[in-house]
Amino acid sequence: MRRIEAGRAWILTLVGLLLPHPALAQSPTAREIIDRVDRLLRGESSRARVEMQITTEHWSRTLEMRVWSLGVDYSLVRLTAPPREAGTATLKARQEVWNYLPRVDRTIKVPASLMMGSWMGSHFTNDDLVKESRIVDDYEFVMSYDGRREGVSVWEFVMTPKPDAPVVWGRIEEQIRQSDLMPVWVRYYDEDGDLVRTLTFDDYKTMGGRLVPAIMLVVPADKPEESTRLVYHDLEFDVPLDPDFFSLRNLRAQGG
Amino acid sequence: MAEDHLWWRVAWRNLGRNRGRTLITTSALAFGYLSAVVMVGLTDGMSAELVENGTRLLIGQAQVHASDYLPERSMYRTIGGQNGVDVADLLERLEAHPDVRAAAPRLYGGGLVSGGEHTEAALLLGIAPGRERHVTTLLGHVTEGRAPASGSREVMIGVEMARQLGVGVGDELVLVAPAADGSMGNDLFALVGIFDTGTPGIDASYAVLALDELQRLMAMDPGRIHEVALTVSRPVDTPAIAEALGAYLGSDPPTEVRPWTALRPELAESVALMDSMNFIIVLIIFAMAVFGVANTMIIGTFERTREFAVVRALGSSTGNVARTVVYEGIVLGALALVAGVAMTWPILVWWHRAPPDLSALVGGFSWSGAQWRPVLRVEYSLEGPVLSALALFLTAVLAALYPAWKAARIPPADALAGR
Lengths: 256, 419
Prior knowledge:
Shape of chain A: globular
Largest sheet of chain A: 13 strands, antiparallel
Oligomer: heterodimer
Structural class of chain A: mainly beta
Strand order of the largest sheet of chain A: 6-5-4-3-2-1-13-12-11-10-9-8-7
Distance between the termini of chain B: 35 Å
Structural class of chain B: alpha+beta
Distance between the termini of chain A: 30 Å
């Protein structure tokens, strides 16, 4: 129920962050900063090669995949490894998520009741792929810290959902570097104020012409020894893609 | 003692003097006994029906799990952990226990069932069909087609899920389940059967396939099972039996045996509620009897005011006068008991053997998550009749206390003088 915003961040990161950021006006408000980071992490379209390293109590595995995205409505993920699962694909088109299973050559729409289920055994949910609520629309912001942490100038924000916002988190905390607007970490809390998971960003580098965090790590609070780590190998922005690319027909197509 | 014997005789004779009244009072008590025992038997019957229906359909009367399986039901926590267990040996050990009637192994998986255009979330249940039949009635509810067989890609789903998916027997379904190695197990299965248990939650969410097939889908070894469902010799005593079984199985592998009272606490609460209803019913019936009997006995002593006065005048103590009235109550109670038991027992046995089936009048219904048959079933233990007998006896004695007290207080001179 609570992986939505990380999903947003994931997609956004998948999508990539795009516009070189204009220098911030002096004394920006919390809302302005978050909004800018939000937009920064949203590209019109993107294409990426990603490695997903999943570690659980019972097994570890690495998935390799190609990812395409268009705006906030469309994304397509196709596994390229391990070989046994290569070709398995997930399509997100607006509010729907579809899986393609090459073994049985079928596409399956993920039912609403399973949207909170794990995506491919990772610590992301199907819902993470879908939910695209803009953080600036659904949350109230308070800047809780403005200064240096470990020698780096950062802002920290506390976001609490607006009364009727369709979100699942009770509170989100985020740290952002002042120098380049790169997110450092995001912490997600439930309605009881308990930490549910932590998202950590790392390996900031220029990919596709933009500075992005190339590594993203999700750690569930109740199982700190488990994690899902995303590593971006290639990332291109503003690639020519149109909505037809994100069709069920293309989901089944092996090429991608 | 000889004197005591005399007062018993007086009591007996007094009862014989107005036989009509004695007969009526005795009958009232005997019928009270009959209704109490039958009412208790009926609620016991409902309890038994509740327990059997609530457990026989799916959960069984007791379940064996890995000790860390509940309440999270993590798919990894199979009996014996990652290495699994010698399933055949475990079942053999369980069935060797005198209180275990049958045992059936199971594996669960949370997944998807997809057919045609639609996909539904489902609870995948892997069973050993041959054994499952002896533990639950699930396979008896197959209304179309047949149960899935071991070693073939066959599945059966509930009537509600079939409706939601828009599929029928013979169609092909895709089953998807997270596997133990982290992958997404998926395969094509033939829909060979549709079941209709009458319990919407089960009919909409369960997809049943052979244990070995689910193990393969979930990338699990044949030794890995989540549960062994049991039928025990005496369902009412399941908690004690489960405890004994826990000790019997020992700690290799670490297991936990849960009785249905723990698996379905709401069911246990319903049964407890009915037991307390029993108590109230018996209380009401005998409270009514107390006043009825007391009434006739008060009249009886009132009629004999002069007689008691004479007895008193002849030198009997007040205690002896009171005693004879109480003895009357005791004798009355004993008579009523004999009559009540003679009347009740055949009715109870007959009712138990041939419970009236009201199916023609009302349909089956679902209560407390269990499907009910519209059958007025009567169950009896020794407890109900014995307790009722005790209550009847107490009633008779209690009802005699007030008249006895009244009789003892009759002033001889005034009474004889007609004042």
